[in-house]
């Protein structure tokens, strides 16, 4: 039973802290409605998903570019070890 009481106090404390923070951020303005908050949350989730997809596409393009670059270097005689050394030096 003590664990339940502790959990409840923790939830209330978190609620109070959140409410206080929202009031401080609103600077005397009316707090946004739950509908507005959910709409903003949905917008941010959609933005996050779009950015993750863009990042994934860019990462895949970079991998493809590195593969093509390595193939060209092999054809031209540049060794893979030299390329790795150059990359390490650039990252320092």
Can you tell me about this structure?
The protein contains three helices and no strands. With 92 residues, it is mostly helical. The mean pLDDT is 87.
Strand content: under 5%
Low-confidence parts, pLDDT < 50 over ≥5 residues? none
The helix fraction, in percent, is: over 70%
Main beta sheet: none
Determine the number of helices (DSSP H or I, runs of at least 4 residues). 3
Distance between the termini: 55 Å
Q: Regarding quaternary structure, how should these chains be classified?
A: single chain
Order of helices and strands: HHH
Query: How does the overall form come out from the CA principal axes?
Result: elongated
The radius of gyration computed from the alpha-carbon positions, rounded to a whole number of angstroms, is: 26 Å
Structure class: mainly alpha
Mean pLDDT: 87
Total E-strand runs: 0
Summarize the entry for a quick read.
The chain is mainly alpha-helical. Helix content is 87%, strand content 0%. The chain contains 3 helices and no strands.
Topology:
Elements: H1 2-26, H2 34-76, H3 80-91
Give a quick set of tags describing it.
92 residues; mainly alpha; 3 helices; elongated
